[in-house]
Design a protein that fits this description.
- There is one protein chain.
- This protein is an alpha/beta fold.
- The chain has 2 domains: about 50-305, Purple Acid Phosphatase, chain A, domain 2; about 335-485.
- It has 18 helices and 15 strands.
- α3 links the parallel β2 (about 95-100) and β3.
- α2 (about 75-90) runs antiparallel to α9 (about 305-325), α3 (about 110-125) packs antiparallel against α9 and α15 (about 425-435) runs antiparallel to α16 (about 440-450).
- It starts with a helix and ends in a 6-residue tail after the last helix.
């Protein structure tokens, strides 16, 4: 009797968990219109026969920046893994993750490390096919990253036969044919002489022919191409059931788009890996394909496995050091050098004391011991350092001579300091301290004016770090005026 009681209790417990998972899905798409319940148009209480978990256009954003709070930002591998695990459990593994491509946005050693980190994450998440984006193709060691993996797919790009033209995925009872294609304009930007290409339609024709011969139930094309070219390819190849494009701007559409002259449904990835598209395939003549987009908001807990992956990425950056990442300090365009905020504070006492009460003062501390995901330090990451110290180019991620280079050696450059907005202070300090003899009043005043900022100049400087990626709230109407009140320093000592 006792054994039956516990068995029954366990059954109810599992049922409760399953119901909780399904019923919680609406909260995972908090950006959707409140009247639209996620998956409300899908067959009720019936899992798809097979499904695809579609991502793409990560563009280097393996995690949200977090500077303005992770609650305000979407995306990241850690959240993605959590969502995928839910669907794998919910749909009894009958869902295959695929990616349209373009994992990075730059070249160089750090971009290569980021690409390798992403591929490692894809292997953990058991991705079945990954497209190749234009920035991926310009990595210096792309071949070393993908050799033997049989993960990367592109119908019109080849690199020593390490990029497959197509794959047949066995997902549940379905055979889903997958191929990827790189658009015409993106082909022009390839700088790797070892890469061989053909026009998109030519490569796609051969891949689709093979997928048709394999008697796939559905054919899906992942297109890293413009919106117009994606639609033209869909009209040219009537075998395509779903075509996913990286060509859309902003958020992906809420619903699939029907393409005149094609049976294919058009989906968009969106940008920066912020969204996941779920495509469900059913044995239903009337509506065989269903779609749902989901935003990777903070409603998803971070996957511990992915956080370890991100931590390893940061450790690799640390091991390389700035020199190993190809970063060498360069002179500031002004020709001047940095002196540090404390030196500024010797004269500008009120402004300096006010700065010490702002988050800017603690900017370096916040990447050494982040307020969120605190176990992943980022003070060896140039993409974080550039806005959290003094003396770096905030958009190109490299140090200026006499700017910050090391946590211990560059204590005077800790924080986002005075000179990041006003410019290096060496000439101004020299003039005010009497180091320069026979300096005329006119020259003295000129050097003082060089350090001043108009409100428009200040706003432009702010935007270099508080860009739309890192500080989305900063770009709302009237936001700058409110933020400016927190750091304004009108005093003259």
């Amino acid at each position: 009797m006792k054994r039956s009681y516990w068995a029954l209790a366990a059954s109810f417990s599992l049922l409760a968990v399953a119901l909780t998972v399904w019923q919680s899905l609406p909260s995972f798409a908090a950006d959707e219109p409140p009247t639209v319940r996620p998956f409300s148009t899908w067959p009720e209480n019936k899992a798809p026969d097979a499904a695809l978990f579609i991502t793409g256009r990560q563009h280097g954003y393996i995690e949200p920046c977090g500077c303005t709070g992770l609650d305000n930002q979407k995306g990241g591998l850690a959240r993605r893994h959590t969502l995928l695990k839910m669907f794998l459990k919910k749909w009894d593994m009958k869902i295959a993750p695929v990616d349209v491509g373009n994992q990075v946005r730059r070249t160089g050693p750090q971009a290569q490390l980021k690409f390798d980190t992403t591929l490692n994450a894809f292997r953990v998440m058991q991705y079945q096919a990954v497209g190749i984006g234009p920035d991926d193709l310009n990595l210096s060691d792309l071949l070393g990253s993908i050799a033997g993996s049989e993960l990367c797919v592109c119908a019109n790009v080849d690199l020593f036969e390490q990029i497959l033209t197509h794959k047949v995925l066995n997902v549940g009872p379905k055979k889903i044919g997958i191929t990827c294609v790189l658009g015409t304009e993106h082909l022009k930007g390839i700088r790797n002489a070892d890469i061989q290409t053909v026009p998109p339609a030519e490569g796609l024709e051969k891949a689709i022919e093979k997928l048709t011969a394999a008697k796939c139930d559905n054919i899906v094309v992942l297109a890293f191409a413009s919106m117009d070219e994606t639609k033209e390819l869909a009209k040219k190849f009537q075998e395509i059931d779903v075509i996913v494009t990286a060509g859309g701007s902003g958020e992906p559409t809420l619903l699939p788009e029907k393409i005149p002259g094609s049976k294919a449904l058009l989906l968009q990835t969106g940008k920066k890996g912020m969204y996941v598209g779920i495509v469900g395939f059913y044995d239903d003549e009337e509506t065989p394909i269903h779609y749902q987009r989901l935003a990777l908001t903070s409603n998803f807990r971070d996957s511990k496995v992915m956080l370890e992956n991100l931590k390893e990425y940061q450790e690799n950056l640390k091991a390389r050091g700035l020199a190993g990442l190809g970063l060498k300090p360069v002179p500031h365009p002004s020709g001047l050098t940095f002196v540090g905020s404390e030196t500024c504070g010797e004269c500008h006492t009120q402004a300096y004391e006010h700065w010490k009460k702002t988050p800017h003062y603690h900017a370096t501390d916040h990447i050494v011991k982040p307020l969120e995901r605190s176990d992943v330090a980022r003070h060896f990451d140039p993409e974080c350092i550039s806005c959290h110290v003094t003396g770096w180019n905030p958009q190109q991620y490299y140090p200026y001579s006499t700017g910050y280079v090391d946590l211990e050696k560059s204590k005077a450059m800790h924080g986002n300091g005075c000179e990041n907005c006003h410019g290096p202070g060496s000439a101004h300090v020299a003039a005010e301290s009497g180091e320069i003899e026979d300096l005329t009043d006119e020259e003295q005043n000129k050097r003082r004016l060089q350090m001043r900022q108009t409100l428009l100049q200040a706003k432009t400087a702010c935007m270099e770090c508080h860009d739309i990626d890192n500080s989305p709230d900063f770009h709302k109407d009237g936001a700058f005026d409110e933020y400016w009140k927190q750091i304004a320093h009108p005093w003259r000592d």
